[in-house]
Amino acid sequence: MRTDPVTAGALRALHSDPAAPWTNDRPAAEVGGSRPTLARHFTALVGRPPMAYLTWWRLPLAATLLRDTDEPLAAIARQVGYGTPYALSHAFERGFGSAPGRFRVDVAAWAPQGRCPPAFGTRASTGVAG
């Protein structure tokens, strides 16, 4: 497995504060690299550019909060970096094929069985396996 300190540093930064107002330049600045170099290395090693990865990373974080808390969607949206519940809902439905509220209901029904609802993680755009 290849490792790259610039990519590793950018991943640490994104993971440490996924709700931050990230831009294309900020992860590179966090690790002292250039944006084009980071984008090239990150994409080669992670499989998607930094901001696409961040979008992907935020969705499972939101799903975990929906599953494990009773917090309102607006609070969850803020915690994972979406400015509005609508923005999170749109991304969540595009990524997982289910609205956040439906996911919360479905996962609660499936939880006693220790399983995820069938629709969870089925969209190829997320890279998340269900």
Automatic annotation (TrEMBL):
HTH araC/xylS-type domain: residues covered: 8-106
InterPro entries, sorted: AraC_XylS_family_regulators, Homeodomain-like_sf, HTH_AraC, HTH_AraC-typ_CS
One Pfam family it belongs to: HTH_18
Keywords: DNA-binding, Transcription, Transcription regulation
Keyword DNA-binding appears in the UniProt entry: yes
Entry keyword Nucleotide-binding: no
Domain of life: Bacteria
Descriptive protein name: HTH araC/xylS-type domain-containing protein
Species assigned in the record: Streptomyces mordarskii
